C-alpha cells in the first residue's frame, strides 16, 4: 500500500469514528433534554423531582435522578422512567420524544395526567416494551398508532376516562402479553386478538362486549346459560309438583264428600 492509499484509509477510519462519537454525544444530549422537558412541563406539587438538577455535567449524572434507570451508570442514556404515584399534573410531555432512541419502559401511573394520549407517542418512542398510564385522568380515544410500539409486551391504560373502541389495529401487536383497559368508558366489540386475555382487563366498561367478557364469565357465558336453564327446569318441576299436590288434595276432598 502506497502512502496516498494509507492516508486515505486512515482518513476514512477517523471520519467514521468522529461521526460515531458525534451520534453518541447527540443521543446523550437528547436524553438530558428529554428529562429537562418533563420537569419543565409537569407540575410537581410534592417536589418529587427535586433531585433532577441539570447543573451537573458529569458522565451518567441523570442516572441518579429519582425514577430514572439507565443502560449504564457511565452514560446518560435512559432505559426506564418510573414516575408512579408522584402526583404529577399535566399532559403526557412531548419532551419524551427526546428519549425515544433509548427508552424501553415508561410508567406514569397513579398521577393526575389529563388530556389525551398523544397520537405520536409510539412514533416518539418506538422501542418501548412496557407502557403504564393507568390511574390517571386521561380522556379521548385510544390511538391506533400505539401499534408503532411493535416491541410492546405490556400496555396498561386502566382507570382513566378513555372512550371509543379498542383499536382493531392492535392485532399487529404480536408481542403483547399483558393488556388492561379496565374501568374506562369504552364501548364496542373487543377485537378477537384479545380472546385469550384475562377478563379483568376489560371490566368496568359498560359498552364493551365480546371476547373475554363473553367467554370468561360474561352475561351470556356458558356458566350463566347453564344457571338460567337449570333455574327454568327447576321452576317447571316445582310448578308440576304444586299442580299435582293441589289435584291430589282436591281429589281426596271430593272423595270424602
Automatic annotation (TrEMBL):
The keyword ATP-binding applies. It is found in: Membrane. The keyword Membrane applies. It is a single-pass type I membrane protein. SUPFAM superfamilies: L domain-like (SSF52058). PANTHER family: LRR RECEPTOR-LIKE SERINE/THREONINE-PROTEIN KINASE-RELATED, RECEPTOR PROTEIN-TYROSINE KINASE CEPR1. Belongs to the RLP family. This is Leucine-rich repeat-containing N-terminal plant-type domain-containing protein. It comes from Psophocarpus tetragonolobus (Winged bean). The lineage of its organism: Eukaryota, Viridiplantae, Streptophyta, Embryophyta, Tracheophyta.
Amino acid at each position: 500500500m502506497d502512502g496516498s492509499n494509507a492516508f486515505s484509509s486512515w482518513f476514512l477510519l477517523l471520519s467514521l469514528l468522529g461521526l460515531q462519537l458525534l451520534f453518541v454525544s447527540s443521543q446523550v444530549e437528547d436524553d438530558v433534554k428529554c428529562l429537562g422537558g418533563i420537569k419543565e412541563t409537569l407540575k410537581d406539587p410534592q417536589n418529587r423531582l427535586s433531585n433532577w438538577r441539570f447543573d451537573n455535567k458529569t458522565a451518567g449524572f441523570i442516572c441518579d435522578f429519582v425514577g430514572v434507570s439507565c443502560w449504564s451508570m457511565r452514560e446518560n442514556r435512559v432505559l426506564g422512567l418510573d414516575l408512579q404515584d408522584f402526583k404529577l399534573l399535566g399532559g403526557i410531555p412531548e419532551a419524551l420524544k427526546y428519549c425515544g432512541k433509548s427508552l424501553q419502559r415508561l410508567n406514569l401511573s397513579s398521577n393526575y395526567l389529563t388530556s389525551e394520549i398523544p397520537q405520536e407517542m409510539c412514533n416518539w418512542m418506538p422501542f418501548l416494551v412496557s407502557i403504564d398510564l393507568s390511574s390517571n385522568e386521561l380522556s379521548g380515544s385510544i390511538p391506533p398508532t400505539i401499534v408503532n410500539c411493535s416491541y410492546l409486551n405490556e400496555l396498561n391504560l386502566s382507570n382513566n376516562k378513555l372512550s371509543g373502541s379498542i383499536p382493531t389495529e392492535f392485532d399487529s401487536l404480536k408481542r403483547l402479553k399483558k393488556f388492561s383497559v379496565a374501568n374506562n368508558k369504552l364501548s364496542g366489540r373487543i377485537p378477537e386478538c384479545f380472546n385469550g386475555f384475562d377478563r379483568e382487563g376489560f371490566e368496568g366498561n359498560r359498552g364493551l362486549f365480546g371476547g373475554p367478557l363473553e367467554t370468561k364469565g360474561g352475561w351470556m357465558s356458558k356458566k350463566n346459560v347453564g344457571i338460567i336453564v337449570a333455574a327454568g327446569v327447576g321452576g317447571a318441576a316445582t310448578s308440576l309438583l304444586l299442580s299435582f299436590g293441589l289435584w291430589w288434595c282436591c281429589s281426596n276432598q271430593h272423595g270424602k264428600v
